[in-house]
Amino acid sequence: MAEPGRLEVKAVSKSYSAPGRARVDALVNASFNVEPGAFVTLVGPSGCGKSTLLRLILGLDKDYDGDILLHGERIAGTSLSRGIVFQDHRLLPWMTLEQNIGLALTNSTLSPEQQRRTIQSHIELVGLQGFEKAYPHELSGGMAQRGAIARGLVGQPEILLLDEPLGALDALTRVRLQEELLRIWRAEGVTMILVTHDVDEAIFLSDTVIVMNANPGRIVKQVKVDLPPGPRDRVSTEFAALKREILVAMGEVVSHAAPQAVEA
Known about the structure:
Blueprint: E1 7-16, E2 24-34, E3 39-43, H1 50-58, E4 65-70, E5 73-74, E6 82-85, H2 97-102, H3 112-125, H4 141-154, E7 159-163, H5 171-188, E8 191-196, H6 199-205, E9 208-213, E10 218-224, H7 237-250
Helix pairs in contact: 3-4, 6-7
């Protein structure tokens, strides 16, 4: 298991431009820290820069202003130290589950036997033992996504980035996989950064929720989730209060707080 990563995002801005079109500010002056082993979620509407931030943290794009530092070193490209899981499981249909997971070890320095053991241990971590030789079409949507999580973790990254990994699942499967994701996070001790539109999911999983808004993409609030570590009670008063705080920050609901009295 790799040491979990400490990430620093410092005044990061990213713009796009195309001939004949106005410049788009996808992200403006974003700053936050992620402590080693933390679970942090980016939540906000489409176009607020959540996925842009993940691309920058992953190292897919180096053309931006500001700094993104891992252990104090600027991220300068992709690396096995950062894994990613997408909304679509992206398992290759002509490969078995174990072969798909093994793809993440293509550039690994592990011996073939070490790779085999690592692949098997991660199949067991996500509860898919017995399906090693199964092809993606033989797996349910939730099982395939657990396979994608295993593939993201098998290289023992310091940070696992999760880009709407449960967004395509039905409601019941999604809730079950949220609980599975918590279990896997605790077992691995890896730093996790999740992107989601689902505020309940963000509160259920996270230590901290970073609230973003669009036009331009920016961070509007950071909310500390001071609830018992879980599984958290989704219908508790405290959970509902955090949800309202986040929705107000996103502009989804209007705060009806009473005005402060003014002394004469």
